[in-house]
Each structure stands twice: as structure tokens, then as C-alpha cells.
Amino acid sequence: MTKFHKGYRITMKDIKKEGASILRKQLDPVRMPVTEETKTELECMLTYLKNSQNPELARKYKLRPGSGLSANQVGINKRMFAALYQTEKGETIELKLINPKLISHSANTIYLPEGEGCLSVNREIRGHVLRYERIKVKAFDIEGKKHTYAFKGYSAILVQHEMDHLDGIMFFDRIDKEKPFLNLQ
């Protein structure tokens, strides 16, 4: 039974921090059909992201801004995550993906020049994380319908970061300890 209910507001107190065992666990698949409990959990996760990206609400509730939140980051053992980001055209995209599977990827790789961050990590970790530039993912939506999604650039990085969480992988696990900073042209 989850503590999240309709209208529950996730705060930083709910975010599991580096060292929590659930962050290193391979999460269990979500059973179909999608239950109301699972829908509510995903809605609460997405609401956190919306609130965290609103400067006034982020300040009021002391939220760190985030673009993605996986279930284990709020203590839930389910293969699902929420994401909220802007496309290059300024369009806001809301994702609530259940049981995502990477089905294809580009040969090309990219990274965020400033490095990646994580709501579960309260320290600065410097280094680049190589990610596929383009990916295709099969996943269920909140209504239990299966879709194939295509991501490129920032959205591909974000989705790979969140999917790593579902397998107990933290972004810093992917930083080359010998050469943390890349110079790809």
C-alpha cells in the first residue's frame, strides 16, 4: 500500500537519497491492468516535477528542480517513471512510462556538457555520462496501452537516466573514473 493519494504533494522528504537500498534495486514490473494506485503514484510524481519547475512553488515547498523522477526515488518498487521537459521548439512534454524497454538506439552518443544531476544525489559529481543520441522505447502509458516512443537529444538523455534508475544504476556509475571529461566533436 502506498502513502500517495490523490492530491498528495511529494516533497524533498519523500525523495530517497544516495545510499538508500531501493536506489540500487532492479525494480519489479508493473502488473497489468494498471491499478488506480499506480496511476495516482505516477500523477503525484509528475506533479512534483511540475511544482519543482515552477520557481514560486519550488521556493514555497523547498523543492529541487527536476526533469525526471523514477518510482524507486520515492520508495516505490515499480518499473515506472515520470518526466517533464521542453522540446527544442518550446513544447512541454509530460511522460508517465510504465515497464519501459529500450528497443533500439543510435550508434552516435552524446552527453550533457555540464554533466548530469539527480534529485537523489546531494553532492556535486563532475564528469560526463555518455548516452545514446537517439533511442526508441516501448512502454505502457497510464491507461495500460502499449506505445513506441522515439527520443533524441536531451529527451533521450533524460529517458536513459530514468531507465537506469529502474535497474538500480546511478548516473555516476557511468562516468569514466580515468577520464571523467569527454571532448566529443
UniProtKB/TrEMBL annotation:
UniProt: Fe cation binding residues: 118, 161, 165
Catalytic reaction list: N-terminal N-formyl-L-methionyl-[peptide] + H2O = N-terminal L-methionyl-[peptide] + formate
CDD domains reported in the protein's UniProt record: Pep_deformylase
EC numbers, comma separated: 3.5.1.88
Enzyme kind, highest EC tier: hydrolase
Biological process per Gene Ontology, one example term: translation
Cofactor(s) the protein needs: Fe(2+)
Keywords carried by this UniProt record: Hydrolase, Iron, Metal-binding, Protein biosynthesis
Superkingdom to which the source organism belongs: Bacteria
NCBIfam families, A to Z: pept_deformyl
Similarity comment: family membership: Belongs to the polypeptide deformylase family.
Protein name stated in the entry: Peptide deformylase
Gene assigned in the entry: defB
